[in-house]
Fold this protein.
Amino acid sequence: DSGVTQTPKHLITATGQRVTLRCSPRSGDLSVYWYQQSLDQGLQFLIQYYNGEERAKGNILERFSAQQFPDLHSELNLSSLELGDSALYFCASSVAFGGAYEQYFGPGTRLTVT
Amino acid sequence: AQSVTQLDSHVSVSEGTPVLLRCNYSSSYSPSLFWYVQHPNKGLQLLLKYTSAATLVKGINGFEAEFKKSETSFHLTKPSAHMSDAAEYFCVVSSMDSNYQLIWGAGTKLIIKP
């Protein structure tokens, strides 16, 4: 158990809908990362927050947004969902940011868009 | 530019034989290097990390990796494979090149034959 929690575990929704994925980092970790993992594209970094501020952006679509709240939990919002958005979404956390800080991953949310 | 290449998409070994998963990286600055493991339908778990201390790094579950600067490699090894090692393994690099974002390899699927 990494100490990172994600809810829900599974989500099934229809195209065009909007969903919110939630992540609670390990106690003491200030940095939160979101990743998307699909069969055809592998593991893709989406976005990083550090202590409530956006720190880095990866391959995140404009239909997706995220935020980190004062209690350090984070939410990833996915809107106008398409079939291709079906994937595993992982949240990770680290103490800070920088090369030496390893990331600890949550169990993931499996999103299925039908 | 920073990059990481996992030289084999699949590696198949018999139980009880050695494991070698190969990883090469490129980085203009001193890198931090990580190996993560993902068991089927599970999240990612840190196996080990290198951050400019000892070049031979020991990780969990009997795995180790050696940082070889001259060869720009960080291969993962284990003396004797166990059925429970069947998983996907990711080599990851981070440095000032990428503003300390993690750059992920494409993954190597390790198959253990009984």
Observations:
- Chain B touches chain A at residues 31-32, 34, 36, 42-46, 49, 51, 90, 94-96, 99-102, 104, 106-107 (CB under 8 Å).
- Chain B has a mean pLDDT of 93.
- The longest strand of chain B covers residues 87-94.
- The CA atoms of residues 21 and 75 of chain B lie 6 Å apart.
